[in-house]
């Protein structure tokens, strides 16, 4: 006899109902688990990392940084030796002209084929250029006047120097400007990252604040439901007047309306937060933050010192001053006295046979000196110099204003932090007192010693104190972030953001 035939199933009363209940429980657990998995929980650091990857402003800043880097790379490459080869394989010309010496008309045919090979090397120190040039060619010329045809190969090899004098070094200035542009783009990118961190942090804490307000509203609504049930039971037992039930219903409806309003505010904050991070608006998210209050040791003098030594805006203002100085030099050179020297030395040879072009070489030296002398410009240069000097002075004033703004902002943040520390301690005590007060008055209400209106007032007071504490804690966190951005020193970790290089 098989096992299947001998096995008996013992019937237990209620087994079917239990199985159904167990099945429903499993389904609910699965649904809750799937909802939890679908909801993305973000910390502040994760949110900042996501924003840095997806932010359009950061992408533009990085592209600007890349463009300035490549411009500097191109300029540095242009300062190396440049090799060039120009080839003209065919150049034919036929013309008829009048020869005044012999009073005759003459037809001339000329065919050329030549190539130029050059190596040019800019001289950064002097703004000059030294070049080695070789021109090799073939010429076939026919003249009707003498009925003669000449076919020759020629080669001209010479070294040439072109050197400006009595003027500024344009090569050095252009290179320095591109280096400053790259440094400025690097600073702008770093500032954009700090600005993004600040924006994400504010949006993050705003979203958390709305989450917290919604939770407070839920707690208040639950308390109001408990209060309503107590009131209803007492009214049904003729222990309270019917008016108390009306007031309890009003309190419950008001609490429900507040809960719904906070849900709308949370949804709006979620959309703004997801838009800032660049994530899908349909994605469910929640934020996780350690909002516990820990006093941070903040040294005002240390914050000011780090800020005035390392703030990138100050370096940007200094770069603006250097640029203005360059513009002043350029403006001064518009009508300047300047000159140039041209030197070349080489040998030339020609022959009917290409290998013999240098049988009888000719040395071809060349020296040229030229000057550009301004005479009278009707005050144009002086006026343009005044404009350039004014711009330079404005840049210097901007630097001083930036220093004062940094100092004032840090001093304000420091005072706010000191005040917020006191406010947090007071808010924590207020929450404790409001909680104890509400619990005591709830018991009084249960015993009939308090009206529902008075209990609602204590419930509202408790909600307000909880919200005020959360606001104070968030404001403290944000002010710490502001101080980090303003001073470039993280007082939470006691570490500088910029480590000096030796």
The average pLDDT value, as a whole number, equals 84
The second-level CATH architecture of the largest domain is: Up-down Bundle
Largest sheet: 6 strands, antiparallel
Share in β-strands: 15-25%
Question: Per CATH, what is the topology of the largest domain?
Answer: Outer membrane efflux proteins (OEP)
The CATH homologous superfamily of the largest domain is named Outer membrane efflux proteins (OEP)
Q: Over all CA atoms, what is the radius of gyration?
A: 43 Å
> Which spans of ≥5 residues are poorly predicted at pLDDT below 50?
1-37
Strand order of the largest sheet: 2-3-4-5-7-8
Shape: elongated
- Number of E strands: 10
Helix segment count? 10
Whole-number tally of structural domains:
2
Q: Secondary structure elements and their pairing?
A:
Layout (H helix, E strand, L loop, with lengths): L2 H4 L8 H24 L1 E3 L1 H11 L1 H23 L3 E18 L4 E20 L4 E16 L4 E18 L4 H67 L5 H36 L7 E3 L12 H11 L1 H21 L5 E14 L10 E11 L7 H67 L5 H36 L1 E2 L4 E2 L6
Parallel strand pairs: 1-6
Antiparallel strand pairs: 2-3, 3-4, 4-5, 5-7, 7-8, 9-10
Q: Concise description?
A:
The chain has 502 residues and is an alpha+beta fold.
What do these coordinates show?
With 502 residues, the chain is an alpha+beta fold. The chain folds into two domains: 41-66 and 175-324 and 388-496, Outer membrane efflux proteins (OEP) (Up-down Bundle), CATH 1.20.1600.10; 81-123 and 128-166 and 337-373, no CATH class. It is 60% helix and 21% strand. The strands form three sheets. It has a six-stranded antiparallel β-sheet with strand order 2-3-4-5-7-8, with no helix packed on it. Strands 1-6 form a two-stranded parallel ribbon. A hairpin with a 4-residue loop joins strand 9 and strand 10 (495-496).
């Amino acid at each position: 006899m098989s096992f299947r035939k001998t096995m008996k199933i013992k019937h237990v009363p209620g087994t079917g109902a239990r199985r159904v209940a167990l099945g429903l429980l499993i389904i609910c657990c699965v649904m809750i688990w799937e909802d939890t998995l679908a909801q993305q929980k973000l910390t502040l650091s994760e949110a900042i990392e996501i924003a840095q990857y997806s932010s359009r402003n950061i992408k533009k800043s990085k592209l600007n940084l890349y463009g300035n880097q490549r411009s500097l790379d191109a300029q540095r490459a242009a300062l190396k030796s440049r090799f060039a080869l120009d080839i003209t394989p065919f150049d034919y010309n036929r013309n008829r002209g009048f020869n005044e010496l012999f009073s005759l008309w003459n037809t001339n045919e000329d065919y050329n084929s030549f190539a130029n090979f050059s190596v040019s090397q800019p001289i950064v120190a002097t703004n000059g250029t030294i070049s080695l040039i070789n021109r090799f060619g073939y010429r076939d010329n026919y003249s009707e006047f003498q009925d003669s045809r000449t076919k020759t190969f020629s080669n001209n090899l010479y070294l040439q120097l072109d050197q400006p004098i009595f003027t500024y070094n344009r090569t050095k200035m252009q290179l320095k400007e591109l280096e400053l542009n790259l440094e400025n783009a690097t600073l702008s990118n770093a500032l954009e990252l700090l600005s993004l961190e600040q924006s994400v942090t504010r949006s993050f804490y705003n979203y958390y604040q709305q989450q917290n307000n919604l939770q407070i509203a839920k707690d208040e609504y639950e308390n109001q439901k408990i209060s309503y049930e107590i009131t209803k039971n007492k009214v049904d037992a003729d222990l309270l007047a019917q008016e108390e039930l009306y007031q309890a219903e009003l309190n419950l409806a008001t609490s429900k309306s507040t809960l719904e309003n906070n849900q709308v505010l949370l949804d709006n904050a979620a959309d703004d937060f997801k838009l800032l991070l660049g994530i899908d608006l349909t994605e469910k998210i929640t934020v996780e933050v350690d909002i516990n209050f820990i006093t941070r040791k903040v040294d005002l003098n240390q914050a000011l010192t780090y800020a005035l030594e390392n703030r990138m805006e100050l370096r940007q203002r200094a770069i603006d001053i250097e640029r203005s100085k360059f513009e002043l030099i350029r403006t001064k050179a518009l009508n300047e006295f300047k000159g140039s020297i041209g030197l070349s030395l080489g040998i030339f040879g020609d022959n009917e046979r290409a290998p013999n072009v240098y049988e009888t070489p000719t040395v071809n030296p060349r020296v040229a000196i030229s000057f550009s002398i301004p005479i009278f410009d009707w005050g144009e240069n002086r006026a343009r110099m005044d404009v350039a000097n004014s711009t330079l002075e404005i840049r210097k004033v901007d630097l001083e204003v930036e220093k004062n703004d940094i100092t004032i902002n840090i001093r304000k943040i420091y005072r706010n932090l000191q005040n917020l520390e006191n406010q947090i301690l007071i808010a924590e005590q207020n929450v404790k007192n409001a909680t104890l007060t509400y619990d005591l008055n709830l018991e009084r209400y249960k015993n009939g010693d308090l009206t529902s209106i008075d209990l609602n007032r204590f419930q509202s007071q408790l909600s307000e104190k909880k919200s005020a504490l959360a606001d104070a804690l968030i404001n403290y966190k944000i002010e710490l972030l502001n101080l980090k951005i303003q001073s470039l020193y993280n007082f939470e970790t006691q570490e500088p953001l910029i480590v000096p290089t030796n």
